[in-house]
């Protein structure tokens, strides 16, 4: 404002013009970037409703020549998509529930107490958070076959929970520390046990943080591929990433149509899940960093 | 401890009980297996057996004489350097862009962050179809625009495949950088810019003297985190190319899988896993130091 007074009216018009053209440039750059980044989604949806044979046309037409839902029908009839989906859901819900349960009580203990060994375990689990799955995949495979859990969804739930727990413990610890201990102490003076005080007083206050750990855990397990590849083998135990990947390159039966239909459905599911999580529970997507 | 906590009788038992399942899972499925690869790496043990003959450092001697290993090591550095470099460049640029006010910003933001929220398998399927030599739309656009004369074998030519995998990874993971940088940009008090404007500082001066110092710790930490996670990456590469053609996209994690589950050489695979562990350890030292430094600064 003061600058406009000093420079006079003519100059301020020039500045306004420059500011406007700067805005236009920002707008155009942003939407040019968004078109490039967003194009694969549009192409995926468009191709998922083309006739299977049309997907193998070179050069491809942009819009479908004939609209069809045949790829979606094929996906459900020819591949085990419903089974893959159910398996992924079982693994993701199972390991999310366990991560939340163990992570919440464990994170609370780490937040409040300093007994022997707790700090060491906290440091150890922070270190474990930085370790890649490929590092331990050979011993894990051996362990699973040793205890007879090979080719079961239980082994996937256990492995995913273990690899989510370090993150869950550290974030829960931070969330519980932000709740004053005096709240639960007054509850305990009124006769609550430590666990009751935790469950009735501290947990409800820290709930948004707990929910964002849940989103992280679900996303991790839902996406997980290496454990599924190594620990499961039969068709009936395949999760979505593994199940769909076995159909890549099966060109004799025009598999691209089905695969793009599957991708579209998965995209819709993910979007719905995120909207649900964001509207109800979570302050911001990606808060605290999601392991990728 | 953030504040003194009154310890009641029974709290010790509660704490240990509460942590027992976490300790059991983390020890059994991460810590002990990590120690186990040290033992496996000095044995000649085929996959499917639990132990083998002690061979000392033979697995490492074999590894250091193996051309595949050096190819994988080189690919790992190109994969990490290319991916993280481009992600930081595009991520910071897009964050600065999204930090401006413009119409329909929410829409641009949603689209630009979307790839990160989708399962990896979706990215793999869509890009494999788009990058197909013959029916793929990318070659079609490139040829009609006159950029290339003949179709490029994006994922099947040894010279291009690693670059294509990097580009797909950048598409998928740049949003993480955008989210991190945008978060810190929005925490810069607007008054600082107003004061600088009054003092006659232009946009470049304001960027260098206010924005840059403010985002630097987060920028460095994000780059290091991305480096560690990019070094870990297995699924995206394996699903896009399987490590091929020949060894063109085989990084160290992919090589661990191939040695272990294609060649059934658990000892040899564990030796590679130890090299990865060393690499991660070397990356963790600067991460922890910078983390401490940036926390001290705040």
What does this structure look like?
The complex is a heterodimer of chains A (292) and B (298). In chain A, 73% of the residues lie in helices and 0% in strands. With 292 residues, chain A is mainly alpha-helical. Chain A folds into two domains: 2-69, no CATH class; 79-246, MetI-like (MetI-like fold, Orthogonal Bundle), CATH 1.10.3720.10. In chain A, helix 3 (70-78) packs across helix 13 (255-280). Chain A has helices at residues 2-7, 9-48, 70-78, 81-112, 118-129, 133-146, 153-177, 181-189, 194-205, 207-223, 226-231, 240-245, 255-280. The two termini of chain B are 19 Å apart. Chain B has helices at 11-41, 58-64, 67-98, 105-117, 120-130, 137-144, 161-185, 190-198, 203-232, 235-241, 252-261, 266-297; strands spanning 43-44, 53-54. In chain B, helix 3 (67-98) packs parallel to helix 7 and helix 4 packs across helix 7 (161-185). With 298 residues, chain B is mostly helical. In chain B, a hairpin with an 8-residue loop joins strand 1 and strand 2. At the A-B interface, helix 2, helix 4, helix 5, helix 6 and helix 7 of A face helix 1, helix 3, helix 4, helix 5 and helix 6 of B. Chain B: The chain crosses the membrane at residues 14-42, 77-98, 110-128, 134-153, 160-184, 204-225, 237-258, 270-290.
Write a short abstract of this structure.
Chain B: One of its GO terms (biological process) is transmembrane transport. With 292 residues, chain A is mainly α. Chain A contains 13 helices and no strands.
Features:
heterodimer, A: 292 residues, 2 domains, disordered C terminus, B: 298 residues, mainly alpha, MetI-like fold, two-stranded antiparallel sheet, BP-dep_ABC_trans_perm (chain A), transmembrane (chain A), ABC transmembrane type-1 domain-containing protein (chain A), MetI-like (chain A), membrane (chain A)
